[in-house]
Write a structure and sequence with these properties.
The chain is built from 13 helices and 16 strands. A hairpin with a 5-residue loop joins β8 and β9. α3 packs antiparallel against α10. The longest helix is centred in the C-terminal third of the chain and has 23 residues. Bound molecules: pyridoxal-5'-phosphate.
Length: 407
Amino acid sequence: MKVQEGEDTASLLAKANATILFTAARPEIVMERGEGMYLWDTEGKRYLDFVGGWAVTCLGHSPAVIKEALERQAAILVNSSPSFYNKPMIEFAELLTELSGFDRVFFASSGAEANESAIKLARKHGAKNLGGACEIITTVNGFHGRTLAMMSATGKKHWESLFAPKLPGFKHVPFNDFDSCLAAIDRNTCAIMLELIQGEGGVHPADEEYLYRLRKTCDDYGILLIFDEIQTGLGRTGKLFAYEHYGIQADVMTLGKGIGGGFPLSAMLTKERYNIFDAGDQGGTYTGQQLAMAVGYAVVNEIVNLELPRRAERQGKYILEGLRELAEKYNIQHIRGRGLLIAFDLPEPVGAKFAAECLKEGLLVNSPNATTIRLMPPLIVSEEEIDAMFLLLCTVFDRMLVSSDSY
Ligand SMILES: *Cc1c(COP(=O)(O)O)cnc(C)c1O
């Protein structure tokens, strides 16, 4: 049955509870509308969004460029099939390769798919050039997605025993620990894959020296270095790509989240010498789909034109300063991050409760683990909106202080 115009929230929630497969404990609200930094639910309550659809809505909610790109392209051609080249695909591929320093791109719809493509490419390279090497080294506490292969790649403790049997061929080594990584490399290794800032892991940046040594080691052994920039890419950290902070290039880079500004889109980029797939090795019904390509082009173009990486850098500093000013009063610990990917730790493992209290106040923040609060707002966030966020945050801190003896 179609949802009725003006249908009340209780009725909508009853339908949701009866039909949506349970995969997450969702709050008893229904989101309806978004504009800029704000979301509104069906009760008309407004939320200041510092999660941004999980580091996705980089241009804010319902940006005009996405609406225009969709309308323009939908009127011309929605989907010509993955068997043909199309104009938006060519335009977007050219833009991305120019901006990224990579030569070749494969398009998909989600981050996990882009990473799967990277793993396939690494194994192809292993099969062709490294005598059948097929193992990929990833990092403990890393995150690469939720397909079965990416759950195997992800170094999350809780996932180790889930959905057995895992896909073999992944070794997890501690992040920022070069010696462990080196010790894990053998004749069967074809790639090392990592995030430049572990996002889901709680916002932990890679050390420069560590990356430099990984790059050198990959060169020495002829194995691929894969940067998963699905969360860090497209301006989030204050550069268009996080690798620019380090001046170290990977052989393969994956993008997702912000690249579509909310539209399902991802990409795997690589160098000309790894343009090695044979026909049929990789593909997908929606690779290069026109609507996605038109949106991706519009979004990335807007990120560049509005100089959003610079803005992210500036606004990120403003948030970090604000947090440092509050640190003593509220016992905030480990304030960290780069650009608009920021986290801090609470002195007690009450992250979920803290995020729930923020939601009540009309502020969306994320708690990736029991003690950590993560902020990843749209890159368009203004100082006024940051000030508004701090007001709400302090309200929650004050309330939690009163309700907890030790806090
Ligand atoms: C979100 C994320 C993914 C998975 O992306 P999906 O679109 O959910 O498949 C992979 N890697 C990193 C670093 C991410 O943050």
